[in-house]
Design brief:
Blueprint: H1 6-11, H2 13-17, H3 21-54, H4 62-75, E1 79-80, E2 85-88, E3 91-93, E4 110-119, E5 122-131, H5 137-153, H6 160-173, E6 176-178, E7 184-187, E8 197-198, E9 215-218, E10 221-224, E11 231-242, H7 251-264, H8 280-292, E12 296-304, E13 310-312, E14 315-319, E15 324-326
Antiparallel strand pairs: 1-4, 2-4, 3-12, 4-5, 6-10, 7-8, 7-9, 9-14, 10-13, 11-12, 14-15
Helix pairs in contact: 5-6, 7-8
The protein binds manganese (II) ion (MN) (2 copies).
One manganese (II) ion binds at residues 114, 125, 127, 219, 314.
């Protein structure tokens, strides 16, 4: 929404050279500033992810887990960039707890915990898969291996399709299957999916090269060989985002939309995050209305096509010419 992003700052560099030197200095200070903020967001995201990884989540409800992890983000001086995703088993992504969600983690479950942290709109996106059953260890490890291989080759000017190729190659080498219609993505200020996709498979045709100092999330999703390797939208939708601020001339709904905008801007949110200020029933009905009016967008859960187990690993990177900065390492 008219905010300065890292991409814009760097693309505007040419402008600076035609300008007076003082402007160049200002610009460089700004670049450094943004970079430092990304490093800070990344460190917090990494710390919170590792906190989530080492917990024994068995017997806990999904709302306890989400609230706990989000509290950790706040305690570290940042804010969640989206509701913590706690996607179980064949749900690959986009499940977050409902208020008082009663679903309990079992010791046979595979739980993907996807954490987004933002500092002043600059986002770090990272995920870990936890499982307590050794039969899924290869799946979990393979997602991590594919991510490592991808990061090892990612530089400015690396082709996104080559990253997809190494991810797919690594996953099949370990006897698993990539989810072909889930991908990594570019990030910009207050924007999680900023338009560019980093595929998890080898694709023919149009691709692009990573750009120096742009920000990307790489996130392989892995299922078993007998999976379909494709996700479909499920019925459950518990993550929302503002799509339009156009008023609908319903005072309550317009006030609610304004409240959401002030609180979340373009970032996704969950019902859990608004029930302190709005009664749950009322919030649900206002959300429903605003979805019908296309002011809000709802993100459905994404489910593996053959209902096979899915594992995920994710880091946020800033490619350089000769290496890559993994801000969520
Ligand atoms: Mn993520
Ligand atoms: Mn992501």
């Amino acid at each position: 929404m008219g905010q300065l992003t890292l991409t814009h700052i760097f693309h505007n560099q040419n402008l600076a050279y035609t300008s007076i030197s003082l402007n160049i200095f200002n610009l460089e200070f700004q670049e450094l500033d943004v970079y430092e903020i990304y490093i800070k967001a990344g460190k917090i995201a990494s710390k919170v992810r590792e906190y989530a990884r080492i917990q024994d989540h068995t017997g806990k409800t999904l709302s306890e887990i989400c609230n706990d992890i989000e509290q950790e983000i706040f305690k570290n001086g940042a804010e969640p960039a989206f509701p913590v995703n706690v996607s179980l088993n064949d749900i690959a992504a986009h499940y977050t707890a409902e208020p008082n969600d009663p679903i309990t983690v079992k010791n046979t479950d595979v739980l993907k915990i996807d954490v987004g942290v933002h500092v002043d709109g600059y986002i770090a996106d990272t995920a870990v898969t936890v499982s307590y059953d050794s039969k899924y260890q290869n799946l979990v490890d393979t997602a991590e291996r594919a991510l490592d291989e991808a990061i090892n080759m990612a530089r400015s000017n690396t082709r996104a399709s080559d990253i997809g190729r190494i991810i797919e190659k690594t996953i099949t080498k370990y006897g698993c299957k990539p989810i072909q219609n889930l991908s990594g993505h570019s990030l910009e200020r207050y924007t999680i999916h900023a338009g560019k996709s980093i595929p998890n498979i080898w694709t023919i045709g149009h691709s692009f090269n990573l750009s120096v100092n742009n920000v990307y999330a790489i996130e392989p999703f892995v299922t078993t060989k007998d999976g379909q390797g494709v996700v479909y939208e499920g019925k459950v939708k518990n993550i929302f985002g503002i799509a339009s601020r156009k008023r609908i001339k319903d005072q309550k709904a317009d006030d609610f939309l304004e409240y959401l905008w002030n609180k979340f801007k373009t970032l996704p949110f969950a019902l859990r995050w608004i029930v302190n200020e709005y009664e749950e029933k009322e919030a649900v009905s206002l959300i429903g209305l605003l979805i019908r009016k296309k002011n809000l967008h709802a993100y459905p859960i994404l489910v593996e096509g053959a209902n096979r187990i899915v594992a995920q690993a994710e880091h946020t990177i800033i490619p350089q010419e000769s290496d890559t900065i993994t801000i969520t390492k």
